[in-house]
Amino acid sequence: MTLLAPAPVTTRHGAGFWMIAGAFLIAMAFSTVPTPLYPLYSARDGFSTLTGTIVFAVYAVGVVISLLLAGHISDWTGRKRILIPALGLELAAAVLFLAGTALPVLLAARFLTGLGVGLITATATAYLHDLHTAHRPGASKQRFEIVSTAANTGGLGFGSLLAGGIAAFTQTPLRTPYVVFAVLLLVAVAAVALTPETVLERPAEPVYRPQRFTADRAVAGYLAAGFAAFAVFGLFTSVAPGFVAGTLHHPSRLLAGAVVFAVFGAAAAAQALTGRLTATAKLALGLAAQAAGVVLLLAGMSLASLPLFVLGGMIAGVGAGTLFKTAVAMVSALAAPERRGESLAGLFLAGYLGLTAPVIGLGLATQAFTALTAMTGFAVLILALLGTVAALTMRRLVIHPAMPPTPR
């Protein structure tokens, strides 16, 4: 059995909680630095929309492989032993981005980024849970829920905004953002190194096995929620900037980063403001907002209206953020302490599969159909996914009112 480290109420755990949150945010922000830059790569090297989708997909494949093979092992090796090498992978990716813009280099850099993110997501989330519990034993879990999900989704938006802003005002838009983030990643490594460990090593290390899913129906509903939420996130971290520049005729890099930031900022704000809602209310809000947002996105593209497109993205972000926050909270609460990292790795694996598969399909569809037709197919898929989430989660919560609201 994994032993959590003794957890006296100390300022080190309190400070460590915020240092890990900052490192988590920086790591996730780095993963979206290329998002507003894809059109620049396309103009420089003639990449098509499909090529950009492939570059994005390689990142997502790296995440999935990492989650499958190692996203859960911090439960017995310790959180720091996973986070520091994972941040090192992101640093190596930053060096590759600085080395050149050739397609093989970009593919390698994105793959390394994905490997790092796959290790970081579940591990950092579990680490924050441990540190929160150690610093505030017996207290509400609401701070953990808000900070962990905001660092994740807020980081994704922050990376695009900062990269887009730097690219708009520098002479080297494909280099300077990576220099800035290389420095930030070094700061993140130092922050992790200074944070106290929360997991004691097992006397006998367990037999290794890749990540596996549980067959429990209730948990499956939260996995489906993660898949649906990340499908929307994937849209805005891959092909949406191309839609804004091409279909909507707004080529500004700063605008591209701001649009992505608006979506993830809305998601982070929703996660922060829905803490007092019950699990049923959160799920209902998430499902309704994401469905309405996707429909507005489609309308914005059909009418070539940037304001409507952005509004739809923000509403979809509110829905996706609320769904994902609820999923993280419920999976964290349902998991045994010695399997918390493993359970969260399963959730993030489902999420990153959602990040990958629908967007790859969207990129392929743009080769045979117009962007609007491809987006219509994407919208239909998302609506079907949301219906599946409702069937797997809402009915159970209504039938079993004794089930507690989202844990705090």
TrEMBL record:
Keyword Membrane belongs to the record: yes
Xref: Gene3D superfamilies: MFS general substrate transporter like domains (1.20.1250.20)
Q: Where in the cell is it found?
A: Cell membrane
List the GO terms this entry assigns under cellular component, sorted alphabetically: plasma membrane
Against SUPFAM superfamilies, the record matches this protein to: MFS general substrate transporter
The record places domain Major facilitator superfamily (MFS) profile at: 15-408
InterPro entries given in the database record: MFS (IPR011701), MFS_dom (IPR020846), MFS_trans_sf (IPR036259), MFS_Transporters (IPR050171)
Q: What is its main location?
A: membrane
Q: How does it sit in the membrane?
A: Multi-pass membrane protein
Would the keyword Ribonucleoprotein be found if you checked this record's keyword annotation? no
Tell me the GO molecular function terms: transmembrane transporter activity
Q: Which UniProt keywords apply?
A: Cell membrane, Membrane, Transmembrane, Transmembrane helix, Transport
Which superkingdom? Bacteria
Transmembrane region positions? 12-30, 50-70, 82-103, 109-128, 149-172, 178-200, 221-248, 254-273, 285-303, 309-332, 344-365, 371-393
PANTHER family reported in the protein's UniProt record? MAJOR FACILITATOR SUPERFAMILY MFS_1, RESISTANCE PROTEIN MDTM, PUTATIVE-RELATED-RELATED
Recorded protein name is MFS family permease
Q: Which organism is it from?
A: Actinoplanes octamycinicus
